[in-house]
Design a protein that fits this description.
Chain B: Pfam families: Fer4_9. Chain B: Residues 300-331, 365-397 form the 4Fe-4S ferredoxin-type domain. Chain B: Keywords: 4Fe-4S, Iron, Iron-sulfur, Membrane, Metal-binding, Oxidoreductase, Transmembrane, Transmembrane helix. Chain B: This is (Fe-S)-binding protein. Chain B: InterPro entries: 4Fe4S_Fe-S-bd, 4Fe4S_Fe_S_CS, HdrC_iron-sulfur_subunit, Helical_ferredxn, NarG-like_sf. The complex is a heterodimer of chains A (254) and B (441). Chain A is α/β, with parallel strands linked by helices and 254 residues long. Chain A has two domains: 2-119, 3-Layer(aba) Sandwich (Rossmann fold); 129-251, Rossmann fold. Chain A is 44% helix and 11% strand. Chain A contains eleven helices and eight strands. The radius of gyration of chain A is 18 Å and the shape is globular. Helices cover 59% and strands 0% of the residues of chain B. In chain B, α1 runs parallel beside α6 (205-229), α2 packs antiparallel against α7 (237-246) and α9 packs across α12. The mean pLDDT of chain B is 94. Chain B starts with a helix and ends in an 18-residue tail after the last helix. Chain B is elongated, with a radius of gyration of 28 Å. By secondary structure, chain B is mainly α. Chain B has 17 helices and no strands. Classes of the chains: A alpha/beta (254), B mainly alpha (441).
Chain lengths: 254, 441
C-alpha cells in the first residue's frame, strides 16, 4: 500500500490479510489462492503488509476492551491516512470487526468478505469457470459464525460452490442454526473448558454425516478446527478441508 | 343482602388488581436498577420487530411442534380474555351473560372460546407430556432442577384447571338453559360443553346453579391469582415478551458494543497535547468500573431480558459449549441474573429502599468464570431465543470485568493478549514478517 500511495495510485480495494492469513502456514495458502484470483480478474489491490496489525477481535472477545480499542485506533489511523474506502478480507472475524465495530471509532469503510467479493467478480464476468475438477464432488459447507449468524451472509459462499458444478450437501445444522467450529470468542487461543467432547469434533461428525469429499469453509480458524477434527477421525486421506477461494482457484486451474 | 355478591366481587377484583399493581411497581423498580442505555432509535423497526416476533410468533415456529402448540395456547389466552371482560362486568353489575344481546355474534364468540379452550387443554396436556413423560433433554438440564421444573408444571396445571372450570361453567349453564331456569336465558353456543351437560342430568336446578356459580367464582378468582403468580414465575414472558422484542438488538449480531469510557481513555493516550502528569480534578467522579460483576452493572435492557426469559432452553440446546458437556448454559446465565436481581430487590425492600451490601454478587455467587470462559461468542443462543434475549451480551460484560478489573483471564489468553500488544498478532510472530507469504512459493 505504501508503495502505491507514494506513486500516487489508488487501488480498487484493500486486501486485509489478517493475522492467520499472514502467519499461519495453512491460512497462507488461502491468502495465496485469493491473490491468484484477484490477479486473474485484474483487480488492482493493495495490502498493508507490515503496517497491518491485529484488528483486536480476540482481545475484545476475551474482555480486553482497552487492547481492542488501541488496536482499532492504530489500524484506523493507518487506513484513514491512506484514504481507504473498500476492504476485502478472507477472515470473517476481521470482516465483522472492521465492518461493525470500527465505524463507531472513526473507521468507515465498505467491507466485504472474500466470498462476496468473488461472487461479484463472477457476476461482472471478470472471472469465469468451466466445470473442472470438482464436477459432481460431494461438498458440504460449514458456516462461519461471524459470517453467517453475525452478519447474515449465507448465500455468497453457497453460490460459489454451485459454480463448481459440485453437489452441495447441507449439514443438519446449517445457516442460522450452524454449529460453531469451536474457535470463536478467542477459544482458538486457549484450551477448552472441561466437557465430554471438543466442539470441533462434534462439528466434524456432523460434516461427516453428509459423507463429503470436501468440507468447504470460509474462515481460516474454522479451517484449522475442521482440519484437526478430520485428522482426529483419521479421515484426512478421504476428506479435504478447503477454503472457498482455494476451491475456485484450483477449479480455475491457476 | 341483594348486592352482597356484587360487593364481594368488587373487593376480590380490587385486591387482585391492587396486588398486581404492587408487583408491577416492584418489577419496574428492579429493572431500573440497571444502567441507562439509549434505545430510542429506529422506533419503526422496533415496532415491526415486536409485531413480527412477539405478536406474530415468528421465531416460535422455528421449532414447528412446540411453535404450533404454543400458538394455540397464545391465541387461546388472548381470545378467551374477551370472555373475561364479560365475566368481570357481570360480576360488578350482577348481570348474567351481559353480552348475550349480541345474538349471533355472541353465539359465535362463545362457540370459538369453547373450541379454543378444548384446544388449549390438548396443547397443555402435550406440553406436560413433553416435560414429564418424554422428558425432552432441554427441560432436564441441571438448572431446571427444583423450583424451575415445578414452576413449569404448575403453570400447565393452572391453565388446565382454568379451562376446565370455564367449560364446566358453560356446561352447567347450558343445562340450566335447557331446563328453562330463571336468569339463564338461552344465549351462546356450546360446541364443547354440551357434551359435559349430560353429566348434570337429573340434578335439581338449585344444585346446578351451585355448580355453575362455583365454577364461575373459582374461574375468575383463579385468573386473578394467576395474574399475581406471574411475578414469582418464569411466566412473566406473556407480558414482557412485547417490550423485550421492542428493545431487542437491531445491529448485526456480530457487533458488540464499544465502551465509551475506554474510547475516551484511548483518545487521551493518543493525544500528543494531553498533560501526562494531570491529576483528576478534586470533585471528579470515581471512574466507573469496567464490565459487570453484579446485576447493577448491567443495562436495564439486560435486566428486562432476564425477567422475560421463560426458560424454554432453546438457547442452551443450540449452545456448542453446552452440547459438548461444558458447564455453560445461556439459559442459566439469564436465570441467575434474574434470581440475583430478585435477591437485590428483596434486600432493598427489607432495608427501607436502600441496598445493604450482602457480600454476594452475580459473579462467583451465581455465575462462575468457568461458565463464562466456555463461550465461543457464536450467537447461537441469541439466534435461538424466541423473544430476542441476548445472553451473550451478559457473558461479554462479565468477561470484561474479569479481564479489566481483575486481570483474571486464563493464562493462554494472557499470552495471546501479550502477543497482540507486543507484535500486533495473537501469536508470537514478528510484525516485520507479515508480508513474508508474498515472497514464498
Amino acid at each position: 500500500m505504501a508503495e502505491l500511495f507514494a506513486a500516487g495510485q489508488k487501488p480498487e480495494v484493500l486486501f486485509w490479510v489478517g493475522c492467520a492469513g499472514s502467519f499461519d502456514d495453512r491460512a497462507k495458502k488461502i491468502t495465496k489462492a485469493f491473490v491468484q484470483l484477484l490477479n486473474r480478474a485484474n483487480v488492482s489491490f493493495a495490502v498493508l503488509g507490515t503496517e497491518e496489525s491485529c484488528t483486536g477481535d480476540p482481545a475484545k472477545r476475551s474482555g480486553n476492551e482497552f487492547l481492542f480499542q488501541m488496536q482499532a485506533a492504530t489500524n484506523i489511523e493507518v487506513m484513514n491516512a491512506y484514504g481507504i474506502n473498500k476492504i476485502v478480507t478472507a477472515c470473517p472475524h476481521c470482516f465483522n470487526t472492521i465492518k461493525n465495530e470500527y465505524p463507531g471509532l472513526g473507521g468507515h469503510y465498505e467491507v466485504v468478505h472474500h466470498t462476496q467479493f468473488l461472487k461479484t467478480l463472477f457476476d461482472d464476468k471478470r472471472i469465469t469457470l468451466e466445470g473442472g475438477q470438482f464436477k459432481g464432488k460431494r461438498i458440504t459447507y460449514h458456516d462461519p459464525c461471524y459470517l453467517g449468524r453475525a452478519n447474515n451472509v449465507y448465500e455468497a459462499p453457497r453460490e460459489l460452490i454451485r459454480k463448481l458444478d459440485a453437489e452441495l450437501i447441507e449439514m443438519k445444522s446449517c445457516k442460522e442454526k450452524g454449529l460453531c467450529c469451536g474457535a470463536g470468542g478467542a477459544q482458538m487461543f486457549k484450551e477448552p473448558e472441561k466437557g465430554d467432547k471438543d466442539i470441533n469434533i462434534e462439528r466434524t461428525e456432523q460434516a461427516m454425516e453428509t459423507q463429503p469429499e470436501i468440507i468447504a469453509a470460509g474462515c481460516p480458524f474454522c479451517n484449522t478446527m475442521m482440519t484437526d477434527g478430520v485428522k482426529n477421525k483419521e479421515k484426512e486421506g478421504a476428506i479435504a478441508v478447503m477454503d472457498i477461494a482455494e476451491l475456485i482457484a484450483s477449479a480455475g486451474d491457476l | 343482602m341483594e348486592y352482597l355478591s356484587n360487593i364481594l366481587f368488587v373487593i376480590v377484583l380490587i385486591a387482585g388488581i391492587g396486588f398486581f399493581a404492587r408487583n408491577v411497581k416492584r418489577l419496574s423498580r428492579n429493572i431500573k436498577l440497571g444502567k441507562d442505555v439509549d434505545v430510542s432509535d429506529n422506533t419503526s423497526q422496533r415496532w415491526k420487530n415486536m409485531a413480527k416476533i412477539a405478536l406474530g410468533q415468528s421465531k416460535m415456529v422455528v421449532r414447528p411442534i412446540a411453535g404450533f402448540l404454543h400458538i394455540i395456547v397464545y391465541v387461546g389466552f388472548i381470545i378467551i380474555n374477551i370472555e373475561v371482560v364479560e365475566i368481570i362486568l357481570d360480576g360488578i353489575l350482577g348481570t348474567h351473560r351481559l353480552f348475550a344481546p349480541l345474538g349471533v355474534v355472541y353465539d359465535a364468540l362463545i362457540g370459538s372460546f369453547e373450541i379454543l379452550a378444548i384446544l388449549v387443554i390438548v396443547a397443555v396436556t402435550i406440553f406436560w407430556i413433553r416435560r414429564n413423560v418424554i422428558r425432552i433433554k432441554r427441560f432436564m438440564k441441571p438448572e431446571m432442577a427444583g423450583w424451575p421444573k415445578e414452576d413449569g408444571n404448575l403453570i400447565l396445571y393452572i391453565e388446565l384447571v382454568l379451562m376446565t372450570l370455564f367449560l364446566t361453567m358453560n356446561g352447567a349453564d347450558y343445562q340450566l338453559q335447557q331446563m328453562g331456569a330463571a336468569h339463564y336465558t338461552e344465549a351462546g353456543s356450546f360446541p364443547v360443553s354440551q357434551y359435559i351437560a349430560p353429566l348434570f342430568e337429573g340434578m335439581s336446578i338449585s344444585s346446578l346453579i351451585l355448580v355453575e356459580r362455583t365454577a364461575w367464582w373459582i374461574h375468575i378468582i383463579g385468573i386473578l391469582c394467576f395474574l399475581n403468580y406471574l411475578y414469582y414465575s418464569k411466566h412473566l414472558h406473556i407480558l414482557l415478551a412485547f417490550p423485550n422484542t421492542y428493545y431487542g438488538k437491531l445491529v448485526p449480531k456480530g457487533q458488540f458494543k464499544n465502551s465509551d469510557a475506554v474510547t475516551a481513555e484511548v483518545k487521551l493516550m493518543m493525544d500528543p497535547s494531553a498533560d501526562p502528569f494531570a491529576a483528576p480534578a478534586e470533585d471528579a467522579e470515581e471512574p466507573a468500573k469496567f464490565g459487570a460483576s453484579d446485576v447493577t452493572d448491567l443495562s436495564w435492557v439486560q435486566l428486562l431480558n432476564s425477567y422475560t426469559c421463560t426458560e424454554c432452553g432453546r438457547c442452551t440446546d443450540e449452545c456448542p459449549a453446552n452440547q459438548t458437556g461444558k458447564k455453560l448454559s445461556p439459559r442459566k446465565i439469564m436465570m441467575d441474573t434474574r434470581d440475583r436481581l430478585t435477591e437485590v430487590g428483596k434486600n432493598i425492600d427489607a432495608n427501607n429502599g436502600t441496598f445493604v451490601d450482602d457480600g454476594k454478587q452475580l459473579l462467583d455467587g451465581y455465575i462462575s468464570p468457568e461458565e463464562l470462559w466456555a463461550c465461543t461468542t457464536c450467537n447461537a443462543c441469541v439466534e435461538a431465543c424466541p423473544v430476542s434475549i441476548d445472553p451473550l451480551s451478559i457473558i461479554m460484560d462479565m468477561r470484561q470485568y474479569l479481564v479489566m478489573e481483575q486481570s483474571a483471564a486464563p493464562t493462554d489468553l494472557n499470552n495471546m493478549m501479550g502477543n497482540i500488544e507486543n507484535n500486533g498478532a495473537p501469536w508470537p510472530f514478528n510484525q516485520m514478517d507479515r508480508l513474508n507469504w508474498a515472497k514464498e512459493e
